[in-house]
Design goal:
- By secondary structure, the chain is mainly beta.
- The chain has 2 domains: 291 residues, TolB, C-terminal domain (Neuraminidase), CATH 2.120.10; 120 residues, Rossmann fold (3-Layer(aba) Sandwich), CATH 3.40.50.
- The chain is built from 4 helices and 30 strands.
- The strands form 7 sheets. Strands 1, 2, 3, 4, 5 and 6 form a 6-stranded mixed beta sheet that branches.
- β4 and β5 form a beta hairpin.
Length: 432
Amino acid sequence: MRILKRWLLFSVLLCVGVAHAADPLLISGGSDRAIPIAVVPFGWQGGTALPEDVANIVGQDLRNSGTFEPIARQNMISQPAQASEVIFRDWSAVGAQYVLVGNITPEAGRLQIKYAVLNVATEQVMLSGTVAGAAEQLRDLSHHIADQSYEKLTGVKGAFSTRLLYVTAERFSASNTRYTLQRSDYDGARAVTLLQSREPILSPSFAPDGKRIAYVSFEQKRPRIFVQNIETGHREQITNYDGLNGAPAWSPDGKRLAFVLSRDGNPEIYVMDMGSRQVQRVTNHAAIDTEPFWGKDGQSIYFTSDRSGKPQIYRMKINGGAAERVTFVGNYNANPKLSADEKTLVMIHRQEGYAVFKVAAQDLQRGNLRILSDSSLDESPTVAPNGTMVIYATHQQGRGVLMLASINGRVRLPLPSIQGEVREPSWSPYLN
């Protein structure tokens, strides 16, 4: 099984394919309904068409969270552009609990957007605001409006203005593959290239400042860890040990980097102080220990180990102490990722009696586990900083794609396809 081999080899090398076009939106059943919200097409007072549909982007953001269900435009009885134009009975008739309206006007070479969120039942304005920027910033402005609206309605900070790292692989022949490290909006839009190589690139990871990234590169024909500044492009090799150098993970303060080395003969977890470059060994066990992820306290590490016979997730303090097993459901749990509040653990999971690998979310307080994917070869989950969404790599029709799913299980949809096979996603922290 490819995923099991990937775990044993710590993502040394994956097979390469070609991505395909996005599939239709898939919605899986949650325990209750998403909240109906009408995101009305924004008014536009300019002469030429805008390059982006702001209301559509805002609506997609709110839908992707799994919390809201936008009302279809064809079902809207009216289309107000400002709060004073809202006829509440129109929205009550279509079942909307909230209405989001906006108006865009040109102003001094920029675009100004005034928006408002209204409660249909109380007929009150819950949120109003104004943002402005250039036409090429419309997606940024849209994500900002979605962030503000989501936080006002849920009390949870929105994560739509975040970014995504991932790797694409374009195979031209058996001996010729181009690997590209990409950064995009969280939803896959506006992808830019950060690095290209003829050798594999693996395990990209954002630093908490959102300006630095770490990743594994095989450009020296061996796995080595690099750190790169996104803004300047400056990159630095930080490991050059014999054997495996893999799975870099930033500490919450960005001052340390955890990774896997086999320099002492067995794959173990190590931590590097990024200031002094001193390396500390964390695990010391005959088993394979890999895939570290920091706890929010900055003093503990979650990791995958087969010390119980099969891969399971453990937690231990970096300064010593016994490793505590965290996962018990299923015969395979690996690649741990946590929400920022450390309430939700996302992992690759295999149930007893099955040979398929799925993305699952475990409530660390209650212990219950939810399967989030419906595919069978899922890999590399990464969690939004607010814990509401997860993006993971999977295969559809033999091709590598990225999927986005809401943690509550209501939404699952493919991200826009990029040229080549897509893999190794990593979600950024909050950037504002």
